[in-house]
Design brief:
The protein has 9 helices and 6 strands, in the order H-E-H-E-H-H-E-E-H-E-E-H-H-H-H. It is α+β, with helices and mostly antiparallel strands.
């Protein structure tokens, strides 16, 4: 990723990255190339994550943070997201020295309710930009959308195991897979079908007439 950052123009952009790329050198490369970062802090940055977690999970300190909440309902799934941010990070002396441009910490609490069963998870972040809680929700949601697409491509097309050596062929196959997923999405939304992607794809594989329905829907 650090090599890639030197090849593209990120001036004025917010670079959002998962825990794998939550590294001090990556943060520095983003700032040096004119961008800002929003990085997810997890186990690979254990001390950083623990310090943010302790701060956020202290009810008195969390009450001083700015927050926003969104609620969504989709196909019987209820999801609530609460975002908390703080630009008051002078107490993070060590981290301020290590993380170039660090200006903000944040957390998002995601709660899912499916068939009456609720799960609860927390995500912790650092950013070089002083974010509002609405900003944090926006950027994090966009990153989750990318991760969701990657997950679908891997689950249904086993994309991570693809052994094509040509970068051009890989790009073309990636686009074709995404087109196929878009056709499936359109069909499911328009037809109100409750069948999972895997069964719809199997139907198309076994019956050309069935495949035609998806293409001309």
């Amino acid at each position: 990723m650090q090599e890639l950052l030197n090849l593209i123009d990120i001036r004025g952009c917010m670079v959002v990255a998962d825990a794998l790329n939550c590294q001090t050198k990556t943060a520095e490369a983003i700032i040096n190339n004119g961008g800002d970062y929003l990085l997810s802090a997890k186990g690979n940055q254990e001390t950083l994550m623990k310090d943010i977690e302790d701060y956020v999970q202290d009810e008195k300190l969390r009450a001083t943070m700015k927050f926003a909440i969104t609620n969504e309902k989709n196909s019987g799934r209820l999801e609530s997201r609460q975002a908390f941010v703080s630009n008051d990070i002078d107490w993070m002396d060590t981290h301020l020295n290590n993380w170039f441009g660090l200006s903000c910490i944040g957390a998002i609490n995601r709660r899912f309710t499916i068939n009456g069963v609720t799960s609860d998870e927390w995500h912790y972040y650092i950013s070089s930009r002083k974010l509002s809680p609405e900003d944090l929700l926006f950027y994090a949601r966009n990153e989750w959308s990318v991760e969701s697409m990657h997950w679908l491509l891997d689950v249904h097309f086993d994309e991570d195991s693809c052994r094509l050596r040509s970068s051009n062929s890989n790009e073309n196959m990636n686009m074709i897979r995404k087109i196929a997923l878009n056709y499936l999405n359109i069909y499911k939304n328009e037809s109100k079908s409750k069948r999972p992607f895997s069964k719809l794809m199997l139907s198309c594989l076994c019956d050309c007439e069935e495949l035609l329905k998806f293409i001309i829907w």
